[in-house]
Structures are given as structure tokens and as C-alpha cells.
């Protein structure tokens, strides 16, 4: 019986048809033309149920629809025949759902054919109905009578029951309207959980959740999956798909409104309306007062919620809208940021599964196609749309076809993918298109601010259009301000440029192909269409003899990335619009002269060190009145350029730069040793100064203050315009200027400058947010730190001489505090004042004994992560409430997600273990407790309360010698990683079977552990890695057959393990590696069933053991057994 892919809902009305049911796509099926006995008036010897034509099929007696109710359902042979067919159909294919209504009849009478049902069957027997047929009818009634349904005991319950029946039927039907086979949706459960968390289903009001992301990333899939999950909870639901395209049609908005009204009201629209405002009124009057789930899929900037649906405030509390869009800004107009969900690209394992599903109709690659599959997945950028399209095109193809396809994909993406992605591009303004294509061709991974200097000078308005590209998920901005773009969008952008001229490949706006660029220059094929050229640089490149004539036609060139070795001539008069020049130097030589009239960004870098460069052309950059960015990484220079006289420079980066002879000019004082005094006195607009690995001795901006002779002194001050100052690896730097005037400085980092002993003027840094100090081994204090009220991040690393810090009580905005290897630091004061602190990291502070204010800091309930490692003298005062026996009296630290305590005093471990016992960390996801190797922390420790940490994802326990037992772990349903190392007294791990999410289990040096029984291991269906090492008393290890996801199995030096039933490993098709070593008493009988075994590392194999049907016996690799070892 074919239901057309829909679930048939069969209502068996054993006494009464309660309500006329509406079906959205087809009319309800009924037994028509029946007589008073409930049988058809036209006799038919055969019965064919029409369920395949209906969503709802009603099985009832005709007379039962009249005003007077009878109790004679079982007297109707026709009803019993239908019922038997329904039950038979349901048992054969499970496509239909039977919903019985027991109206004024006891279900037990139906189930056992007692009461009126007994009398009915007696009558059938008297009418000579054969015993086999009667037996079939009785069995059908028995099965239906055992089903959950509705038992209506009085007429007063009729209306209420009718509503319940309709709601239930509707729920079942809604499941069939948007069925997604979850086996094909890899990783969808994680999306559903995150979306539902943001939907806040229990909160009041009508709310909107927005789903956004790149085209083809899976927004519709996620929205549909969530809709399927929730539609039964709402009863009234509507899914409006492809809204963007439908709004373009004539009366498109009206058709969307009609579908919404029809879906929610559950009636066909008979009332016609011809304009949008009428539709809004009807929605407000009839729809908004019904709690509903409504999805609007794929909207764009043309979508206005109020113009289509009315005001969100008009909808009843509990109504939920899900709206998907490529444009984040569209969603922000109807909901807040906290209710937005961005669909990210798939993880590599899930992307590989999705690709393989379409390419092989399996979840893993076919033999011999593993590497090709990995390469295809990497090339597609893990975009679901591209994975599906590409995988389908490769299905059933030979390997040669795959190789050619992969090579083509690296240059030209699939047409279907391009067409889908290009929808977003086509709606952009021309300026945004230019920026997008620049990024796709040249600037992925580049600093957004650097590129913006060029775009701003070209009147492309990056401040506006970069934001638009981000909102439309076409680009992303990384944590360090880099520009990022999905690979498929990059390929699409380059294909758009390539299509500008498919006949003449050099006559396009942007050239990123090395071969095309070299052909253009060699053959003088440039045109005024070309705006950018990048030539990929090898570590060595031959001289190509590129002369100035090669640039003759490139009048609109604004970006050039080239190797100076290729050039034999100046080209300053031929590229007047050049804004950004990147020159790579390989092994020394001459630098050509270039146009500086419009130059905004200049970068000169080198592949090799200790090479002298003649940078003659750089002496002219002092005339570059528009230059904003200067980056030099040129090692030994024969002369240093003068900075622009205009003072236009805003970013100056010098890396690996030394000088070959003594020179003194306007800005640089050089010493004979290549050291120099950098005077940046004329750079009044400088915002960013980065110095790395150079020979600078002093940084000065010299000013003479006229005072009485005895008080006259030189003040060395940096430009007050600085916002970023990084000084890294300047090993000759001996002195820093006073920083007190840098009131706009936001980011200050000084690292590996061993001769710098003090930092003056910290108290004047009124805007500083990030301070990082590392490798200043003689730095003894940080006076003024307590006055940097704006500070958000503080990192102190390897400041060995630092003994004290000012109190931090005033740093109320500090978010991150990291102190590492400050071995003389004895105390930290004022922690209680860090009201915003989210992350505390202290490591290797060997002299640290006190954290003043730590208890107050915890009580503020803002910390998300605490890591205290190797602080052997640290003492924490007992916390208030830790002596209580009642967890409810202890404070609850809801914010803490990560706790890492390693190699501290036993008292510190005791305190944190006590806090665990008192259930103070209910939201902890990562817990790492590490004692010391030599047993100093061998205090009696208990981890009671661990079993209540249901959100725990990672649990690591190391060197806790006193632990004898762990509480049952069965409630840790989210735990993914359990690492237990050197717990010598641990005898048993309880509750392993309950760890349904566990992916890695590692047991090392648990010398008292004797058994891992089958009932503990068998349920770990998600376990991928199992490692047991140096567990000498382990004798029993069973239940491996239940580890369906296991990929790696390691058994090392388990000397008491005698038996590992190989038959338990037969079904482990995901197994990739088996590592058995040092298990001297282990017996294995057969490894032939391990089909997926990829490799075996060294295995200690006793001579008494024999292997039969070794799968590697006939392989090309030769395996030798020597002295009990496989090598």
C-alpha cells in the first residue's frame, strides 16, 4: 500500500466518528455508501483499502455518525475486514499509525472480545463466517485494543476529546510534511541543541530566532531539522520556504500570507484578499492569537517582518519564529544578537562522511580512494552544498576521472555551487564587489586594517562595505583582524574575475596566477583593465629581465606583489596609480625605482638573512606624501630610508634589520656594530610601531626642555598618537622611553628584550587594554600597574626577577590574568577587586605563597577558567562554608567552566576537592587535577560530588595516590574524555557504562585495577580510543564487542591480562590501529576479522602464541618474529 512517502494516520472509531478531520493535501478517506449495518450497499467480495490516497483514513460504522449512538461496531463485517487489513498493513511496513478511540466502550472488551463484542462474534459464527476469518478479526481487535488511544466514558467528554484527537493527528501529519532522514544529516544533532538553547522555549512572549551563514552552508537544513523536532510541541506550524524568490513573483507576498493562514488555521482559504495589508489584518485577527511555530526560510534585505506578518508584539506568548538569511543585518532588524545562530562549516570528519555518502553511498571511502576523498573534502572547504554536488558527480566514476575532477576543482568550482553562492554577490554595490574580489584574489589572511588603507584611498569605503560582507557571511574577520573567506567563495570570486575575459586571460581585473602574470609581463600584454597582480614567490626565482616597457599599459594597476629579482629597470612612470607595493628580495641586489605619488602601502621583505641590499630607491620615500604603512624586513641594509616628510606614516614595522656601516641621518643614529638609535620624532601621526628581531639600541623622540642648567635633562617620549606598540626580540635594546604620554595606547607588548630593566610611565597609559611582558629577566617591579584602570588583559611571562606586583584591586575591568614562570614572585594582592575577571592562569610561580582576595574573587561568580600549575608553596586560606556538611549552604559558582589544578600543595588540592564535594561547580566542563610525582600531595583526597557534574566534558586525574575510589560516573552523560594516570590505589571505576558520549578512555599506572567487566565497557558506543598501559593487575577485560566506534586500541604492559577474546573485535569495522606490547601472558587466537586494521606498531608476542589466518600473511610487507617481537 503506497502512501506516497507520507505517514498514513488511521483512526479506528470503534463506536463513533468524533470529528470531521481536515487533511492539508487530500480529503479524509471514509467508508462511503454504507447501509444501516455499517456495510457497503454494493457487495464486494474483495477489499482494497485506499490508504495510499489519503493522509487520514477513518474506519467506522455508518450508523455511528448519526445522532443516536450505537455500540455495534463489531457487528459490522465490513469494519472488521477494514480493521484486519489496516493491522496487516501496519505490521508489514509500519507506514501507518493506528489511533483508536474507545467511545463508551471498555478497551478490555475490545481486547478480549467480551461484553457486546462477545455477542457480536457469536452472531458472526451463527451466520457461518469461517473460523479463520473470525480468528483474524479477533487478533486485529486484540492488537488495537492494546494500543494507546482515547477512552471516552461520557458524552460530556466528546468535544474535549475531539480537540485532542485533532491535535494528535495534526502532530503526526506534520512529522511527514518535512521529513529529514537523520541518517543523512551528519552532525545535525549539535545544531539542533544549540538552536533550541537560543530559542528559550520556556520564556514568555513571541520571539524570533535568526539563522545565518554562507550560502550552501546548511541554514535550511538546520531550520528544517529544528522544525521537525518542535512541530509536535506546537501543534500549529507553518514552514514558508524560499521566501526571497517567492517575494519576487507577482503577488508573492500574498501567496506567502495565504499559505501561513492556511497552515495555522488548518482550513483552506476560501476568503479572497487581494492586497498585502488585508493579509496582515487577517493574520492579526485569526492567526496571531494561536501559539505557533513559524519558519521563514531564506529571506534577504527586501524582507520586512511588519509588512508581511504585522507586529511581533501582536503574536501570542509562546509563538516562535525561525528566520534564515545569508544577511545577518536583516535578522538584527527583527531580533537581538543573542538570538542569532551562525551555521559554521562542518568538521573534517563529518564533511568526509557527507561526501562519502554521496560519492560512495557509504559513510567512508572505498578502498584506494581514501587520499582522493580527503583532498576533495579539503578543496571544497567542507561546504555541504559543494560536498553534495561534487560527491554526486563522482559517484561510480573511475579513479582517473577523480584525479582530473580534483585538478579542475582547484581552479574552477562546480557551476551549480557558483550559481548558488553568486546570489549574494549579485546584490552587492559595486564598491563591495571590488573589495570582495580583492580579498578572493589577493588578501585572504591579510590584516583588515592594512588593506583598508588602500581601499579607503580608492574611495571604496571599507568601513561600510566590509561590515556588509561580514553580515552577509561572505567574509569573516579573525581574532587577529585577518580577513577570511570560505574556500568555495574564494573560488567563486576568482571564477567571476576569470569570466571577465575567457579568451584573453591576462585581460582581467585581477591576476593571481603565476603563469598568467609572467606571460603578461614577458609579452607586454598588459591592459588598463588590470588592477592587481600577484606573482607567487619561490625561494629562488630566475631573472626574467622585466623592463619598464612591460608595465607600459598597466595604468590602472593599484596592487603589485612581485619579486625584485625579476626587474631590470625602474617603472615609476608607468604605474602612476600604484597604491600597494610588495617587493620580495631573495639574495641581495638592486631595488628599482617606483612611483610614490599615490603609494599608500610599501612592504619590502626577504627570504634570506645576512644579505646586504642596495635599497637606493627607498631614499625617495620621504617624498611619498600619501604613505600610511611601511613594513621592512630586509636584514643588513647599505642605507636606511628617510621617513616621509609629510608625517603621514601611521604604521611602521621593522623586522630583522641591521646596518652594515656607521651612518647618521635625520632619523637614525647607527653604530659600527649595526646597533642604532631609532628617533621617530617627525612621525606625529604614527599609530602602530612594531619592532622585531632588530639591532635597535634605543628608541627616542628627542626633546630639549629649557630649565635651569642643573635641572636640564633629555626627555625621551614616543609619539602620543600611538595605539599599538610591540617590541619583540630586540636583544640589544637597553632602554625604553618613558611611556607616560601615551594616553591613547591600547596594546603594549614587550618580549625577549633581556637588557630592559624597567618600564617607566605605566601609570599614564589611560587607554591601555592589553599588556604583555615576556622575557625581561631583570625586571623587578611594575610601578604604575595599579593605575591602568582600563586594562583587560595582563600577561607576565619569564620575568624571573619580578618579586612584587602592585595591588590589583583597582583593575576592575581586567578579564584575563596570566602569570607564568615568574619564579621570584611571592604574592599577588587585590584579587578580590577583579570584578570582571574571567580567566586566571598561574604557572611555575615557585615562590608564590599567597593569593590575597582569592575567596572574594570566587564569590563574585565571574571566573570561567582557573588554572594553577606548579606552585609548590601556594597556600589558600580555608574558604567560608567549606566546613559545612550541607551543600546547600556553600556558594554555587555557576560561571566556572574549566578547573585545572596541577602540582600544588596538598592543602590546595584538598580545598578544591572539598568544593567539588559541596557541588560548588555545577557547570564545570573541564576538570584536571594533578598531584606531584613524588607524593608530596599524598593527603587523603575524596572526589564525592563528581557524579553530579553532568556538564563535564573532559576529566583528567593524574598522580592522585591517595584516591581509592571514584564515585559512580554514570550521570556524566556529556563526558567525552576520561584520562586516569598514576592512581595506584584505584581499584575500580564505577558507572563507565553510563558514559554515552565518551570518545577517549585512557588508564595508565592504575596498579591496583583488576577488572574492566563487560557491563562497564559494552555500552560505550561512541568510544574511539581506548588505551590501557602499565596496569599490571588487570586480568579481565570484556565487552569490547560493544565498542562500535572504536578506532584505536592500545594494551601495553598489562602483564596479568591473560585473555583477549578476538571474537569481540570482529564487528569493530571502524578499528584502524591495534597496539599490543608487553602483555606477556596474553593469548589471542585469531585476528582475521579485523578488516579495517591499518597498522600495527611493535608487538611483544610470546613464543607460545600462534596466529591463524593472519590478514597480513600474504601482504607485500614482510613481518618477522624475532625473540617474541614483531618488527
Automatic annotation (TrEMBL):
Gene3D superfamilies: Helical domain of apoptotic protease-activating factors, P-loop containing nucleotide triphosphate hydrolases, Ribonuclease Inhibitor, Toll/interleukin-1 receptor homology (TIR) domain
UniProt domain AAA+ ATPase: residue ranges: 205-350
Signal peptide: 1-23
GO biological process terms held by the UniProt record: defense response; signal transduction
MF term (GO), any: ADP binding
Family annotation (Pfam families): NB-ARC, TIR, WHD_ROQ1
Domain TIR, chain residue ranges per copy: 53-147
Record-given protein name: TIR domain-containing protein
